[in-house]
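B., you asked whether I could sanity-check this one before it goes into the benchmark set. Here's the sequence:
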Amino acid sequence: MNTISNAGGQGSAQNAIDQLNAPSALPRQNAMASLDQGDFLRLLTTQLTLQDPLEPTDNEEMLAQMAQFSSLAASTESSATLTDISAKLDALIEAQEAALEAANAAAQAAASAAASAASAANSAPSAQTAAPVTTLS
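And here's what the prediction gave me:
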């Protein structure tokens, strides 16, 4: 059986807490986009560390905070998903408009080509010439 001395156990626990509380290296765009599970764990750890041992935090209060954070995380994720969907729909609309313009241009080119071919056919001399008809009697 392995035993860990108190000093070693406290050091590794403190290292874990320090890693959780270390600031993130990622740049933050805004408050809503920057919250994640790591932030919640830092908040929970700090709250538990600073609470009064004689009057601990009420379980209902802690559960309410966890539910609020879960709701915030879900709303942030759905907002990001909706933004992604909106961007894809915008790109699809632009592609459809470009395809419609290309189809209209192709139709106009075909119509002008047909009109020029018809006018060329009308203005060309007849290939058949009248040959004298001889009859045998």
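One thing to flag: The chain has four helices and no strands. Otherwise nothing jumped out at me.
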